[in-house]
Amino acid sequence: MKRESSQENGTLKNRMAEAANMPKDVVLGVPIVTLTGQIEVDVENYRGIIEYTDVLIRIKTKNGQIKITGKNLQIAYYTNDEMKITGRVEAVEYL
Predict the structure, then answer these.
(1) Does one domain contain both 23 and 36?
(2) What is the mean pLDDT of residues 33-39?
(3) What is the CA radius of gyration of the chain?
(4) CATH of the domain at 45
(5) InterPro entries attached here (predicted)?
């Protein structure tokens, strides 16, 4: 019996979400990252904070990490599944 790779499994879940007309973030558990210019980042569906300084914030997600670099970075607030980061955002990377 053939085992599905994680990529095939993700594609199958993606197609199922589309067919069921359900939001992909709910079905796939992927993060939603919303940038407001270079001054604010909203992150939803994260798992935890790995590193937090005023120039670097690393966030754990289901599929890896999100690395945010900049100046005067601050986590304005966070809940179990959402956070707002403010400051001068220079880069957002998916690792």
Answers:
(1) no
(2) 94
(3) 15
(4) 2.60.40.2000
(5) Spore_YabP/YqfC, Spore_YqfC, YabP_sf
Domain containing 83: what range?
Answer: 31-94
pLDDT over threshold 90, residue 49: yes
Domain count, the chain: 2
Indicate the pTM of the whole model: 0.73
How far is residue 26 from each of residues 29, 40, 81, 90, measured CA to CA in Å? 5, 23, 12, 28
Tokens of 61: 């997600």
User: CA nearest 80: which of 55, 39, 48?
Assistant: 48
Q: How far apart are CA 39 and CA 83, in angstroms?
A: 14
Query: CA-CA distance, 65 to 36, in Å (whole number)?
Result: 20
Residue of 41, 44, 35 lying closest to 56 (CA atoms): 41
